[in-house]
């Protein structure tokens, strides 16, 4: 396969070929390493000045810079660093008042973290099917699932493609529901020309796990414009304390006192992790361009094969390309599991995103779920494979994946 020949279009670099091509690898540079070393030498290894800086940088990236004194302008974005996106989703739902007796609607086609945080709060999950074209939550299915117990909707921006947020937000407004976006895949994704994280939802949560579009090893960011939601999330992030350690230990006058105002959690992000995030965030636009090139190269190579290509963003919007998920067409004449075995035999790491929640014993048994209730998710799951897509990949890697896919389909 040759690189795209469009005049002036960037091409993938010629990088060394690894003996086994993993499904994902982070790209960590000298700047990140130096910042981590600086954190270690500073004495602040838990939540401190680098986490504050990362939060401020994230707000600025989303177009909502802080005041010079670090305060959030009226109507601006509050960015709250946490130790995982799971923690961020939990904090967001707790802050909007989800509790026992409530229901939260989300997609069956996601990782269990999206749903499990609802159960942490004693509420129930209402799983719905996906749109077969976009793989995102089906808006009509969401509307059909609303009951008097429904408190919130949690859309997932699958693989980095924005869900239909205009329709979901309008639906939520009509029914008086909260919206918390699971944006674990969606940095940087745009929806209707606006960056995910800046929309009219109550909260948005990003992930910085090792294989995400930027990484802090483990980590996440809760983003909201709601002052009270932000205040509650900050308190609950660290044991329900009225003041965090950074505020108390950097004060110039005696400031050891604090109060426990709620039974909180231990969800703060460390300065060691934030040191990575500071420089990863600076590289996000270049990372997205590289991921876009990889997706374009795959698309060009696979068009003539019995493969359903991943959906694209609407014209003018940006896809984060966290994942490149193909689906074997009905005429592929090979079973998905065998296809994966052949790719592994050829030295290609791959995965499946996701085993739908309705197939897992806990969710299946608790809510008496069956595959027949989620035909689109089930059909996609039976045929889907996530191929390697990460910024350290070069043209030889893409060629190798394409050759392995062709061979598996032909065999």
Question: Could you list some keywords that capture this structure?
Answer:
411 residues, alpha/beta, Aspartate Aminotransferase, domain 2, Aspartate Aminotransferase, domain 1, 7-stranded mixed beta sheet, 3-stranded antiparallel beta sheet, 37% helix, disordered N terminus
Cα Rg: 22 Å
Percentage of β-strand residues = 5-15%
Low-confidence stretches: 1-7
What is the N-to-C order of secondary-structure elements (H for helix, E for strand)?
HHEHEHEHEHEEEEEHHHHEEHHHEH
Question: What is the architecture of the largest domain at the second tier of CATH?
Answer: 3-Layer(aba) Sandwich
The whole-number mean of residue pLDDT values reads 94
Level-1 CATH class name of the largest domain: Alpha Beta
Strand order of the largest sheet: 1-9-8-5-4-2-3
| Annotation, overall tally of beta strands | 12
Structural class by sheet pairing and helices: alpha/beta
Which helices and strands, and how do they pair?
Layout: H1 30-42, H2 49-61, E1 78-82, H3 85-95, E2 103-107, H4 112-120, E3 124-128, H5 139-145, E4 150-154, H6 165-175, E5 178-182, E6 190-191, E7 194-195, E8 203-207, E9 220-224, H7 227-237, H8 245-249, H9 271-282, H10 284-302, E10 307-308, E11 324-328, H11 336-345, H12 361-367, H13 375-383, E12 384-387, H14 395-410
Parallel strand pairs: 2-3, 2-4, 4-5, 5-8
Antiparallel strand pairs: 1-9, 6-7, 8-9, 10-11, 11-12
General description of the model:
- The chain has helices spanning 30-42, 49-61, 85-95, 112-120, 139-145, 165-175, 227-237, 245-249, 271-282, 284-302, 336-345, 361-367, 375-383, 395-410; strands at residues 78-82, 103-107, 124-128, 150-154, 178-182, 190-191, 194-195, 203-207, 220-224, 307-308, 324-328, 384-387.
- The chain has 2 domains: 30-282, Aspartate Aminotransferase, domain 2, CATH 3.40.640; 284-410, Alpha-Beta Complex (Aspartate Aminotransferase, domain 1).
- It is 37% helix and 12% strand.
- The longest helix has 19 residues, at 284-302.
- The strands form 3 sheets. It has a 7-stranded mixed β-sheet, with helices on both faces. A 3-stranded antiparallel β-sheet has the order 10-11-12. Strands 6-7 form a two-stranded antiparallel sheet.
